[in-house]
Amino acid sequence: MLDAFEVPGRTEVARQVTSNCQVYEQKNLTSGEPEAILEGMEKHAEHHQTLSAADRVRRAIDGGGERVWSVQDFPKLPFPAVAQTLSRLARAGELQRVSKGLYYRPRKTAFGMSRPNPELLREKGARTRAVFPSGLTAANQLGFSTQVPAVEEVATTRGSLPRTMVGQRARVHTRRPAAWAKLSEREGALLDLIRRRAQTSELSPEETIARLLSLLREGGMFERLVRVAKHEPPRVRAMLGALGEELGKDGKTLEKLRTSLNPLTRFDFGLLSALKSAKEWQAKECRTDETLRA
User: Fold this and answer.
1) Tell me: the pLDDT tens digits for 127-163?
2) Average pLDDT of the chain?
3) CA distance 113 to 119
4) Is residue 259 classed exposed, middle or buried when 0-12, 13-18 and 19+ CB atoms within 10 A define those classes?
5) Domains of the chain (ranges plus CATH)?
């Protein structure tokens, strides 16, 4: 009777039907179609079977389709076992190692095996590597520019990034302060824009400042940037102080920024020279709008 409805891949489950018949009769699993019986037994077997970490990783990858995998995808499994399994699958050709700790599961296409999407890799890699939009890319994403840059720019706390992650043509700015790792992608992009004195903005100085203040008013944004500011160049702390003045931030926070500056130094604020309190925060004088954009 069992041979009539054995399903490939479930032979072992089917063989257990007879010996476990009484158990399944009590659970009302022997009624219905044979497929339902086997499914019920599978659940019963899985409930009582302890899979090894390697088996769990392999099952997840087999059922995951095309995607990028890392050890962080298996937080409940032992790190060494997961790392060894991913490495073993890469050596067997089932995964492609695209960078340290990142593995890609390809799929077959009409033109051969698929290749990893740099955006997908960067999104995945950002869990272990701090990667942020930078330059014109940051300005575009934050709404300071409508131009989509021909060459994408990113910044990272690391000394380098794999080209498989960012693409062959991307411009990578390395060795940002380690404190940037505490920032979100959006916060890092905003800090990058301030670092550049907002020179990547295509808006007028007044519009640029209005947009910048609006972003800094987002819940806790200004405070989070101030927390990493001590690792930034003095001009960044000065510009944050001037922005904080316009936001009406408390004196204690602003005083910490002010006391970190050499009172004899003057800083190039770029477009942010149009801030009302720029001079109080030691900005160099800019006499014309043309000078602001120079």
Assistant:
1) 555 789 999 999 999 999 999 888 989 999 988 877 7
2) 81
3) 18
4) exposed
5) 2-48 (no CATH), 53-116 (1.10.10), 131-292 (no CATH)
